[in-house]
Amino acid sequence: MRAHYGKVTAAFAISALALTGCSAGGDSSGGGAEAAPCEASEGPVELNFTTWVPGMDQVVELWNEENPDIQVTVQTGPNGNSGTYQNFFNQIQAGNAPDLGQIEYDALPNFRVQDGLENIAECAGVTEAADQFVDWTWGQTTFGEEGSVYAIPQDSGPMAMYYRADLFEEAGIEVPTTWEEYAVAAEQIKAEGAYITNFPKTDVNWFAGMVWQNGGQWFANDGESWDVNLTGPESEEVATYWQDLLSEDLVSTLPSFSDEWNASFNEGQQWTWVSAVWGATTLSDGAPDTAGKWAVAPMPQWEAGGETAGNWGGSSTAVLKGSEHPAEAAQFALWLNTDPEALALANELGGLYPAAKSATELEAFAGGVEFYDGQQIYDVFAEASANVDPNFTWGPTMTQTYTDVSDGFGAAIGGSGTLLDALSEGQQQTVDALTAQSIPVQE
Amino acid sequence: MTAAPATASKRPRGGGPRPPREDTARGPRQSIMSRSAAMLIMGVFTLYFLTPIWWLLTTSTKTGGEITSTAPLWFTANSFGTFFNNLGRLFTYNDGLFGRWLLNSAIYAGIGALLGTVIAAMCGYALAKYEFKGREAIFNIVLSGVLVPATALALPLFLIFSQANLTNTMWAVFLPSLVSPFGVYLARIYAAASVPGELLEAARLDGSGEVRTFFTVSTRLMAPALVTIFLFQFVAIWNNFFLPLIMLRDQVLFPVTLGLYAWNSQISQIPELRSLVLVGALVSIVPLIIAFLALQRFWSSGLGAGGVK
């Protein structure tokens, strides 16, 4: 698959060059920077919506029954980075993209830079909806630009710490609340013959979540150009911290979500997992023998008494460039991501944790969860969600950044270089990639 | 081999006269060493290729939880029941979508390979049996098509099909599958060797038209090559992944490869898909195995003919 991938990204690099003046935001000559007037179409409208959330067709069924004049057809593909994003770019170029598409937050800037999104700020009800969503998710869809909204937040992945309550208690080890305590616990757990956690070398977005929690910023855009900073003091602190754990062999390095990885959790080799809200089902499915033994606590903190949290994953519903009915598309996207019935069904069938603030009122997130010994784990995540830094910005070439940093992480685990070296290397590669696509970068 | 003297390389390769005592009824005598080494190497390769399939077989008889918690290469106590349960879920999940994917694959690969074979056979036959200007140039261009990977053509094809408003239709996958440069090459080689010019002359004298001669006389003589081309095309289309990935948006049109891939990419959200993907992968290779076993006889003779000429 990787081979295919390379070819396609190369093709996009070329198409990006073809799109002149593709700087993000603030560029009055570039298309789409100004919100176009958004008028409702006359007569019945048909919309296409491409997503990879399982069961979304049934959620849309609810909409179609209530809105005979705006009929939405759901098309399902592989998840974004596995092919759907490439398809979107191809289709936007060919002028036959679907009206609506699911796009993860870390891919939105890429679509924005390549002018693949409709600005729906002028569409009815869109800007008014801002306070219905968790602050940071809304920030992801506006890029901080005045009078711009490029997508409606769909779901999010606030992070917390899953831990084996039973093992910690048996061994008499305190459940860590700071990263310092976490490192101490790691040594104690190693002495018990297990690992405190697994370092996921390929999940660079997980690592970004860690930096995010620490108040770091990898990218910034002042409207003129991009500032790339993968090696700021916050990133450095996180990288050094995990490098120490790796060097002392206190964390395992299994490929994430593999059978091996599942088995390791199932057999009690892993005592904690700092992960997103959607990890709850990953865990209960991958480690069925450990039911009732897990609990959830807030992420360990860099400063004692802190309350910061990171985020890992989440996506939005965007109106893609070329849609003939942006008003209706925006209307549907708003309904999809705020209507209680739709949110409940999307959670039940697709496992989504909504970006809408009203998520806390949903029945699905109210009670205790059996796998976690009846703990009301979603309360922990709701709190984490409120504590995610709203200003974190993703870069326009995240797949490239992820690949390069992940390669460096792999090398560091193999003993050549460190995690920090991997970030410096990723920084350079990212700047090169942006320059190659004629995207202005601050030196 | 290792014991051969350095001067051996000066002898014409394989063509030199051998001392008569080496020629027995069963061909050149081989030492037990080299024979068992060959067997060992073949054994290792067989194991290498069959182990994943064996794993697929055993794993599709397990529930989602058992995949990680039981021995990977052996069955569990209730494997039989679980296997049929998995199969049942596979064909009922999402309103039996998997069955639709299998049907799509069968249409793309079956009809595509059949028509593709006819086109390749006609083209190769014409190149072999008719003298016309530019014949070699055409043949060379077709041959160079063998060198271009289908993956590289997918994106340009997408843009072309977009112009014709044919993306996200069955045609988008079906039409590009009809051409097979390798098939044309094989058909030409085989037609040149197996269809005598005299026979065609005789047919012409008897008043048979060219098209009729082709279908009634030549195709029969070319049958082994045609089966080979068909099998090649069938496997290529069945396993084609990138073209449908780019062309199709509507999952009702997916072939089974793309469908399984889409499911596989959703495992982190819907973990129960894991066992469906595995049992689905097993089911998806069954038609290929059947096609191979049924057409194996023709296949190997056709390949051999192509290789010698």
Short summary of the structure?
The complex is a heterodimer of chains A (443) and B (309). Chain A has 443 residues and is of the alpha+beta class.
Strand content of the residues of chain B, in percent? Answer: under 5%
The assigned structural class of chain A equals alpha+beta
Shape designation of chain A: globular
CATH-assigned fold name of the largest domain in chain B: MetI-like fold
- Name given to the CATH homologous superfamily of the largest domain in chain A: Periplasmic binding protein-like II
What is the CA-CA span between the terminal residues of chain A?
Answer: 34 Å
The DSSP helix count of chain A reads: 16
CATH architecture of the largest domain in chain A: 3-Layer(aba) Sandwich
Oligomer: heterodimer
Report Rg of chain B.
Answer: 25 Å
Shape of chain B: globular
Largest sheet strand order of chain A? 2-1-3-10-4
Domains of chain A (count): 2
Query: Tally of extended strands of chain A?
Result: 10
Q: How would a crystallographer describe the biggest sheet of chain B?
A: none
